[in-house]
Amino acid sequence: xxxxxxxxxFAPQRVDxxxxxxxxxxxxxxxxxxxxxxxxxEEGNMQSCLRGMPADSTDRSLLIRGWMVNGxxxxxxxxxxxERGYLPVTLPDAYxxxxxxxxxxxxxxxxxxxxxxxxxxxxxxxxxxxxxFRDKDTIIKDWVKSAKARWxxxxxxxxxxxxxxxxxxxxxxxxxxGKLFNRGVVLREFLPIVERGSDIHGLPLVEESRLFFWQGExxxxxxxxxxxxxxxxxxxxxxxRQFRSQFITIDVARLEDGSWMIVETGDGQxxxxxxGLEPERFYSALWNKSR
Length: 291
Description:
Blueprint: E1 2-8, E2 11-15, H1 20-29, E3 32-36, H2 38-43, H3 46-49, E4 61-64, H4 71-83, E5 87-88, H5 92-99, H6 101-108, E6 115-119, H7 123-130, E7 138-142, H8 151-154, E8 156-157, H9 163-177, E9 184-189, E10 195-198, E11 204-206, E12 208-214, E13 217-219, H10 233-240, E14 247-254, E15 260-267, H11 279-290
Parallel strand pairs: 1-3, 1-4, 4-5
Antiparallel strand pairs: 1-2, 6-9, 7-8, 7-9, 10-11, 12-13, 12-14, 14-15
């Protein structure tokens, strides 16, 4: 399997500095690694993006390890790679299912916060949606990400928020997401996750773990020191196996009552490694599972 890593902008022969340790670890364990231009990918210039692909490789399966892209861009990448004779491991519909919360929700429902959503970004329609959440603390996000860097004024919505205040929070949220806004607006019931303080923006620092799954099996499991999400690995595995994608992430967090809930899911190709997971350990596990 070929792994694609982003190159440094304007330096196509050098790996992006944020991916150097992953690139070196992947090569060390045996993966064939190729660089691609994330900038060309985002612009839809697939010919330039994939110009470094090896023409003589006997293994034509392909996996990205890079920055997040929207579903439309991923589909362009997938189709361009197929035209060149390569086989991306993750199909576009599978990417979308793990990437977009409303598409993952039928699988995670009951194991994650109650959520509802709309397409588009009409503030009045979002306000109508909020009527079903007014008696609960709530967060607002798009179909992929929130504006959590603006936690107090663009993400967190206290119970009983007035229309005027809601529309102001919505304005800040939409302004903060800008061109990165994805598809629509999601409202989610706020989960009482165990907190370990807060950052300078007031964003709670919570007890959360990211689990990677390959073909329904957990890669490089998290620390098993109690309390650990690995205590319920059977639960997470059963959920992971319902996704179409072979390579996904499930982020789980511990609540104040001691239980664990899913915060979000993601496509494994564009999900960052959690702090504490050594790249060599991760890529060794991926190498062993994918062969």
